């Protein structure tokens, strides 16, 4: 063997030794990081349950992990968290929801579901017919005087009954998307209001609406269901983010905190370590009373409102967001809440078909995975949006 070959073999051995040392350094560094993270989780597990649901291990941009109080989660930290969980709403939302569901299923917790039944539902309104029904100053004055006379039993009422819904019955199943179709004036809005428990007290109502077999007078339906109006009523001086955050604070977090407490207790008993990012998100979502919840930022991303999050909503006197964006804000105001049953009235008005598809698809993923209940009224949905629904209700002249 000549000196050239000996030198070549020695060089190869030195290079391989360098690579082995490099691999050992990286392996040792990785092990140290894992050991440090394990120590942080162990310290977190020793905390009382009340404190444990407030603290989590957050991944930092530098690759480090730090124990934090989720109530003090900053704007940039929430933004980075959502970028890791739902980078692109169309592609990552379903994967994110499946991670949430998987964590809950692993400890045997079942999310509550709502089955809505309506039986022999009939609704009618009393109204003036003919010229008396026209909105003129004279008619308004006469109607006011006549109402006073009617209350004093001096004159009989000249209003005539007008049926809106006539003997309709049906079942809205959880984990299914129900599409409500019908021409204008067919009674779609009235049906949705009746199912959500928000009917006007002036309407005559007969029949029965139940949630899981319980009548409306046995509980407060507004805590379990949300009605999303086709009319956009907002405070124009507030930004989109402020509007959704205010709505989230008004609605609260429902039973999420109690569920998370039980989840943490069972995970500790079973020695289960959750995904750190999912853990931070769920604990931050369960913190009520925050000016800007992580759920608010999540809904902004899902509805495609991030681009105008800090823009004023606006009104007729104040320039703000577009009509389509305002419609999405109306939808987002209810989605940030804890309602398990959603009754949505023509949420696609002013939206293009692709945006409508994205929103309905995100709702479908949430309903199917997390066990929600949804009835959505749409006006002439596109074929691809129509195919997202499981059930259809056709309403015409107050009848199904």
TrEMBL record:
List cellular component terms (GO): membrane
**Topology relative to the membrane:** Multi-pass membrane protein
Query: What's the superkingdom here?
Result: Eukaryota
Q: What does this protein do?
A: May be a general defense protein.
**In Gene Ontology terms, what is one molecular function of this protein?**
ATP binding
Q: Which PANTHER family match?
A: ABC TRANSPORTER G FAMILY MEMBER 39-LIKE, PLEIOTROPIC DRUG RESISTANCE PROTEIN 1-LIKE ISOFORM X1
Q: What is this protein called?
A: ABC transporter G family member 37
Using the record's annotation, list all stretches that form the ABC transporter domain: 149-400
Tell me, in one coarse class, where this protein mainly resides.
membrane
| Similarity comment | Belongs to the ABC transporter superfamily. ABCG family. PDR (TC 3.A.1.205) subfamily.
Q: Does the keyword Nucleotide-binding apply?
A: yes
Q: Matching Pfam families, A to Z?
A: ABC_tran, ABC_trans_N
Where is the protein localized?
Membrane
């Amino acid at each position: 063997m000549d000196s050239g070959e000996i030198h070549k073999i020695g060089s190869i051995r030195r290079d391989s030794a360098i690579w082995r040392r490099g691999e050992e350094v990286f392996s040792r560094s990785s092990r140290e990081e894992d050991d440090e993270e394990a120590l942080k989780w162990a310290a977190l597990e020793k905390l009382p349950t009340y404190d444990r649901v407030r603290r989590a291990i957050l991944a930092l941009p530098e690759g480090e992990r730090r124990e934090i109080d989720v109530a003090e989660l900053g704007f940039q930290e929430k933004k980075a968290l959502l970028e890791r969980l739902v980078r692109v709403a169309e592609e990552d939302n379903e994967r994110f929801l499946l991670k949430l569901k998987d964590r809950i299923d692993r400890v045997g917790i079942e999310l509550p579901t709502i089955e809505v039944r309506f039986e022999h539902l009939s609704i009618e309104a009393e109204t003036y017919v003919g010229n008396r029904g026209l909105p003129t100053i004279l008619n308004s004055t006469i109607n006011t005087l006549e109402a006073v006379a009617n209350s004093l039993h001096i004159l009989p009422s000249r209003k005539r009954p007008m049926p809106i819904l006539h003997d309709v019955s049906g079942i809205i199943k959880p984990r299914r998307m129900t599409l409500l179709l019908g021409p204008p004036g067919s009674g779609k809005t009235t049906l949705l209001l009746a199912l959500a428990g928000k009917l006007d007290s002036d309407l005559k109502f007969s029949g029965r609406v139940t949630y899981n077999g319980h009548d409306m007078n046995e509980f407060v339906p507004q805590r379990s269901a949300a009605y999303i109006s086709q009319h956009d009523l907002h405070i124009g001086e507030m930004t989109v983010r402020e509007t959704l955050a205010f709505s989230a604070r008004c609605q609260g977090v429902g039973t999420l905190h109690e569920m998370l407490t039980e989840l943490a207790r069972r995970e500790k008993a079973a020695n289960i370590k959750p995904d750190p990012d999912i853990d931070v998100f769920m604990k931050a979502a369960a913190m009520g009373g925050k000016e800007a919840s992580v759920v608010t930022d999540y809904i902004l991303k899902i509805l495609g409102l991030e681009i105008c999050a800090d823009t004023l909503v606006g009104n007729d006197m104040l320039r703000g967001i577009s009509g389509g964006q305002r419609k999405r804000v109306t939808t987002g105001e209810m989605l940030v809440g804890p309602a398990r049953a959603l009754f949505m009235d023509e949420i696609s008005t002013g939206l293009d078909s692709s945006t409508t598809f994205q929103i309905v698809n995100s709702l479908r993923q949430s309903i199917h995975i997390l066990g929600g209940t949804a009835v959505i009224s749409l006006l002439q949905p596109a074929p691809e949006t129509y195919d997202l629904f499981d059930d259809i209700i056709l309403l015409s002249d107050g009848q199904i």
